[in-house]
């Protein structure tokens, strides 16, 4: 490796921490659990829209099933897993707090 490239790499490595320390934190989180909670808060409208879509889809499947046991079971499964997913997503804050308390 030439001396110019080596000196550039060394000077870059020495000045990088100083340059990075001057930057503001763009994610406004200092800890991982805060990052996850901020992401969940940002994604809640999108998650809610998907949940509404799948609840409407389950209703559509139920109505168009016309008494066919397979289609009604599929509609029930769609509704069940939508509700389970919502419970997990909206309960994530509680889950994260519990894990944070257990790990210290």
Describe the structure.
The protein has 104 residues and is mainly α. It has one domain. Helix content is 83%, strand content 0%. The protein starts with a helix and ends with a helix. 1% of the residues are buried. The model has no long low-confidence stretch (mean pLDDT 82).
Give keywords.
mainly alpha, single chain, 104 residues
Number of strands: 0
Strand proportion, as a percent range, falls in: under 5%
Largest sheet: none
Total count of domains: 1
Structural class: mainly alpha
Broad shape: elongated
Oligomeric state of this protein: single chain
Mean pLDDT, all residues: 82
- Cα separation of the termini: 47 Å
Residue runs with pLDDT of under 50 for 5 or more positions: none
The percentage helix is over 70%
Helix-strand string: HHHH
Rg, alpha carbons: 25 Å
- Output the number of helix runs: 4
């Amino acid at each position: 490796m030439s001396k110019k490239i080596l000196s550039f790499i060394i000077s870059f490595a020495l000045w990088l921490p100083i340059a990075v320390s001057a930057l503001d934190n763009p994610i406004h989180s200092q800890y991982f659990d805060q990052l996850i909670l901020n992401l969940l808060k940002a994604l809640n409208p999108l998650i809610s829209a998907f949940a509404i879509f799948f609840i409407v889809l389950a209703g559509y499947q139920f109505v168009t099933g016309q008494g066919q046991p397979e289609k009604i079971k599929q509609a029930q499964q769609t509704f069940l897993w939508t509700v389970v997913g919502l419970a997990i997503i909206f309960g994530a804050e509680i889950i994260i707090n519990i894990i944070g308390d257990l790990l210290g």
